From TrEMBL:
DNA-binding keyword on record: yes
UniProt keyword terms in alphabetical order: DNA-binding
Name used for this protein in its record: Putative DNA-binding protein (MmcQ/YjbR family)
GO molecular function, one term: DNA binding
Organism: Litoreibacter halocynthiae
PANTHER family in the cross-refs: CYTOPLASMIC PROTEIN, CYTOPLASMIC PROTEIN-RELATED
Length: 117
């Protein structure tokens, strides 16, 4: 997945917003909450997303994936896809969508209603 494809996929999810921060990272949020980050790792595209407890146990052992720098070091279950082989585009999209769903579910009912989700 390219950075443009990552941004297009994240933009296709309901009620998302995009900001560029932390240098030149593409930061995607649902409401005010982060669900995905696109940036570079050693000059290559890298994509960071929140994961479930089960995915947290499995994904860090896969080549091309690691606990996300900064976020995972603070006890959060976030993974970074940082080099091949990593995940297929379809798998990466599924994990980003799951991250979106987990984050959106934690928003208040009022916020979800305001966002139409």
């Amino acid at each position: 997945m390219t950075r443009d494809e990552f941004n297009a996929f994240c933009a296709s999810l309901p009620a998302t917003n995009h900001v560029v921060q932390w240098g030149s990272s593409d930061v995607w949020k649902v409401g005010p909450k982060l669900f995905a980050v696109g940036g570079w790792a050693d000059g290559a595209d890298a994509f960071t997303f929140k994961v479930s407890d089960i995915a947290w146990e499995i994904l860090p052992d896969m080549p091309g994936l690691r606990p996300a720098p900064y976020l995972a070091s603070r006890g959060m279950k976030w993974i970074q896809h940082y080099k091949p082989p990593g995940l297929s585009d379809a798998e990466l999209e599924a994990h980003i969508r799951a991250s979106y769903d987990m984050v959106a579910a934690k928003l208040t009912k009022k916020m979800r209603l305001e966002l139409g989700i």
